[in-house]
């Protein structure tokens, strides 16, 4: 063929699916970095187009963000919806169809499912109500199917288990541990059925919570850290200013904060280090005091749940705000997180020898995330999900069906 003319221009054709391509790339960016750390310029750069071209398809970053969360909500409802022929199916098959739908949809959207858990609080009011309604509908449907399989369960126990099913599967968005689709589907399916079939302890009303320990006013650095954690939990890290933290701690100005911390990011890093240290520090002593891996893992579960109930704001911030930890600190914290999960997974492998290392790690992530999701959905209402129930549900996810 003849060589092209030197002055000939390469013709760049616009992809027919440009809008879908933009939506997919932006969703992946939001999931990796969080909504506030992504700009339209970042998305355009990833696509290799100009910002002007991007704005021709979407009016704003928020439109892309809300669109993905609305899509995930609709997908969740569709996943648990039964086909017309399901009317003649046995109850267990109907519930199994919904569980399979959740797993299949989550695996297909693994890179973005975390958005619905951690970033939906940044939606505008109307959009957030729509997304919340989608997930509430899914929980109601799953709870109804659960009730047919186990009619002896109370309404709120069905709801607790339904939230547990969604949480166990959606944990895939929190890590990148690889496992073949068939093995992953089987693992998550088994964990979900363990949540369905386990028996929870019969409880009276939960005991009154112990009075909060007051921080002495002289410990200003601790006051600042506690108020920062509370504000990050209530409003999200990007929406909290140093002035807000100073006011909450009763300090006269933001400049006073800098006597104790270098800035807002330093406070977030301190919160992460506190949570990570508490999770890692108990592993060694627990192993030394236990007669075997099953007892050690049961003790770690109990301590983790107790800590999550005692400091729900800290544990939520630990899961939800990792993307805002300063880059130079994130690598160190990531190592600590992985070591904690690895220690739990090693104990689990000694209890359940049939599990591969990857399967053990996935189950540990699911069990740890379960506690946070209960707090995210139910708040601090221990009348709905007592800590003894959460302990038992974590054990079901880790130890499997038939475990006691």
UniProtKB/TrEMBL annotation:
One annotated GO molecular function: transcription cis-regulatory region binding
Domain HTH tetR-type: 16-76, 218-279
Record feature DNA-binding region, as residue ranges: 39-58
Signal peptide positions (record): none
Membrane-spanning segments: none
Gene3D superfamilies, per the entry: Homeodomain-like, Tetracycline Repressor, domain 2
Keywords: DNA-binding, Transcription, Transcription regulation
Protein name as it appears in the record: TetR family transcriptional regulator
């Amino acid at each position: 063929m003849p060589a092209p003319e030197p002055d000939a221009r390469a013709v760049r054709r616009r992809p027919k699916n440009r809008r879908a391509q933009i939506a997919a790339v932006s969703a992946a960016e939001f999931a990796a970095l969080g909504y506030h750390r992504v700009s339209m310029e970042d998305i355009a750069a990833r696509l290799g187009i100009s910002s002007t071209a991007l704005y021709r398809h979407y009016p704003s970053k928020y439109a892309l963000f809300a669109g993905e969360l609305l899509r995930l909500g609709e997908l969740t409802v569709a996943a648990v919806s039964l086909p017309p022929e399901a009317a003649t199916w046995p109850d267990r098959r109907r519930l199994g169809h919904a569980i399979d739908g959740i797993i299949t949809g989550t695996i297909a959207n693994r890179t973005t499912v975390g958005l619905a858990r951690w970033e939906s609080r940044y939606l505008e009011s109307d959009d957030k109500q729509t997304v919340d309604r989608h997930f509430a509908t899914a929980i109601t449907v799953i709870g109804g199917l659960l009730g047919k399989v186990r009619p002896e369960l109370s309404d709120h126990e069905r709801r607790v288990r339904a939230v547990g099913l969604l949480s166990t599967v959606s944990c895939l968005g929190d890590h990148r541990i690889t496992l073949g689709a068939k093995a992953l589907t089987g693992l998550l399916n088994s964990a979900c059925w363990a949540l369905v079939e386990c028996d929870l302890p019969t409880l009276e009303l939960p005991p009154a919570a112990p009075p909060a320990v007051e921080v002495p006013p002289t410990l200003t650095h601790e006051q600042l850290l506690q108020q920062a954690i509370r504000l990050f939990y209530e409003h999200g890290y990007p929406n909290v200013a140093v002035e807000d933290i100073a006011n909450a701690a009763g300090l006269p100005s933001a400049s006073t904060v800098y006597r104790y911390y270098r800035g807002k990011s330093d406070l977030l890093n301190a919160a992460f280090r506190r949570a990570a240290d508490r999770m890692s520090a108990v592993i060694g002593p627990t192993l030394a005091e236990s007669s075997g891996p099953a007892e050690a893992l049961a003790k770690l579960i109990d301590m983790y749940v107790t800590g999550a109930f005692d400091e729900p704001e800290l544990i939520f911030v630990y899961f939800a705000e990792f993307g805002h930890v300063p880059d130079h600190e994130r690598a160190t914290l990531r190592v600590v997180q992985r070591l904690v999960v690895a220690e739990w997974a090693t104990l689990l492998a000694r209890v359940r020898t049939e599990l591969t290392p990857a399967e053990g790690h996935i189950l540990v992530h699911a069990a740890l995330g379960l506690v946070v999701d209960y707090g995210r959905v139910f708040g601090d209402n221990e009348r709905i999900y007592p800590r003894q129930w959460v302990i038992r549900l974590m054990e079901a996810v880790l130890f499997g069906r038939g475990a006691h």
